[in-house]
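Notes on consecutive records. When two proteins share a document, each keeps its own sequence and its own token line. Never mix them. Below: protein one.
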Amino acid sequence: MSNAELIRLHGRVPFRWHLGLMLNAWLFVSLVYSNAAQVPAVAPREEGLQRTSIQPATVRPFHQAALYAKATGFLKQLNVDIGDKVRAGDTLATLDLPELESAVQRQTAQVLLA
């Protein structure tokens, strides 16, 4: 008796169809999981939690101050650059002050003549 006749007589799908579907599903699942990546298990251990993070940023100060020279002159030597670490008392730059030097020489000459 054919499958079509069995369905017409009994009104349901024969058992061998169910068996065939189950075998196909089992074969599909076994093929899919046989190609799955193997992940090794590790033993848990106690460690510290890293709480730092590196983020791109621009640092800007809360306060800024404009620096002006007390006397006019020229920059003779620059000892530091942007980003250099400096400490109190470090010489940042050397100025050449020709007007101030000539005034000092003139006053020194006046003192010597007096």
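Protein two starts on the next line and is unrelated to protein one.
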Amino acid sequence: MEIRQCIAILQSQTQIISLDFLLMKRMLFIGLIFTALLACREQAVKNVEIPMTTSDTSRFTPEMVVNEKDYVCGMPVTAGISDTCHYEGKAYGFCSAECKVAFLQDPKKYLATK
């Protein structure tokens, strides 16, 4: 083999290695950009704030229930009804979910003390 042929072969191999290196750099760069975009997207999803609306009006009104006061704690239903339940075909209002749960554990006990 001549020296010129050896030099030509070495130059072509160097160009191939150089092209492989450039391709590898581009792939790494694209991978980093993709990872950064995904990380930003996940962060944006986590920081979404759900607006809380507060209203002075209740979902339930005293006219919707048969009781004038919460059977568990005695609070008047006109002060606000946060939860209701149906028992024996009638709707009952409660000031809290805890009072509703207590009522549902033994409704006859609370209805007997009206």
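For the record: Residues 73 and 99 are 7 Å apart (CA to CA).
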